[in-house]
Design a protein that fits this description.
By secondary structure, this protein is α+β, with helices and mostly antiparallel strands. Helix content is 44%, strand content 20%. Strands 1-2-5-4-3-6 form a six-stranded antiparallel β-sheet, sandwiched between helices.
Length: 282
């Protein structure tokens, strides 16, 4: 659990993280009657989670709400994570007509809700600004911090309209296991042998018994290329060999390597080598 877990002020972040962590740093970014924002740096004893954000809605009374936003980002070079936690208290929403608030998801549900969403590029930039703001103490910078936080709420309400899908691969840490690396190598071997036939990622993942998302990220991490890039490169290398050494025609090479048409093959070949296939014919 988090260090100093008996401190009730830590309970929200303890609930957000949901697994064994150690608190490294805690900074209050903003605190007044309507908003509280904090930044945490934590160390994970276990695998880091996928980066994500959550919006929690808590109806306090009739037409009174509290919203908590949390964002988890990890450092790919260590086992640490950055966590931002923002609470919008009921007084914050009193400045707006209740009819306006209730027209928005998730307020219309009128019950305790938790919605997970991806951290978009715009939100990421706002979080970086928020982290920088903690070094400033003047009133004008407090206003600026409030603006950033309010902007994050707007983006969160917009983002929850988009379905969240999470990939279970936290920065390819699964490649620490020999068995998982062997599956990537096996996939690479299959592609080396079958690059002339189209093998879908779904088929390849079944052949090596690995989740598609793990396979794609792990393959890129170990080879430096996506599966498509790797297969395409193999086909071009083989095409050069067939044209130069085996003396096959352009159409024969195109058909053998599974290109949809001669023109498609010629375009792909010239883009990769700078030459037309016919220029290699002996």
């Amino acid at each position: 659990m988090l260090a100093a877990v008996n401190d009730t002020n830590l309970l929200p972040i303890d609930r957000i993280l949901g697994q064994s962590t150690r608190l490294l740093q805690r900074v209050v970014l903003l605190e007044h009657s309507n908003i509280r924002a904090e930044y945490f740096s934590v160390y994970y004893d276990e695998n880091l989670p996928e980066e994500h954000a959550k919006l929690n809605l808590f109806p306090v009374n009739d037409n009174e709400y509290c919203i908590q936003l949390s964002y988890i980002r990890f450092d790919s070079n260590s086992d640490t994570a950055k966590v931002y936690w923002i609470e919008f208290k009921p007084g914050f929403f009193e400045q707006y007509p209740i009819s306006l608030i209730n027209s928005e998801k998730p307020f219309k549900l009128d019950k305790i809700t938790e919605q997970q969403f991806s951290i978009c590029t715009q939100s990421l930039a706002l979080l970086e600004q928020l982290e920088e703001a903690d070094t400033q103490t003047s009133f004008t910078f407090s206003l600026r911090t409030t603006e950033i936080i309010t902007h994050l709420l707007r983006r969160a309400l917009e983002c929850i309209q988009v379905p969240f899908t999470v990939c279970p691969v936290p920065a390819c840490r699964f490649l620490a296991y020999d068995t998982e690396r062997e599956k990537i190598i096996e996939a690479q071997t299959i592609l080396n042998q079958r690059f002339d036939n189209t093998v879908t990622i779904k088929e390849l993942s079944r052949m090596v018994a690995m989740n598609e998302c793990y396979l794609k990220k792990g393959f890129k991490a170990m080879t430096g290329k996506t599966i498509h890039e790797y297969t395409h490169e193999l086909r071009i290398i083989k095409a050069k060999e067939m044209l130069q050494l085996q003396g096959l025609s352009v159409s024969e090479v195109s058909n053998t390597l599974g290109f949809s048409s001669i023109s498609h093959f010629s375009t792909a070949f010239k883009k990769a080598t700078g030459m037309k296939p016919c220029e290699l014919l002996s």
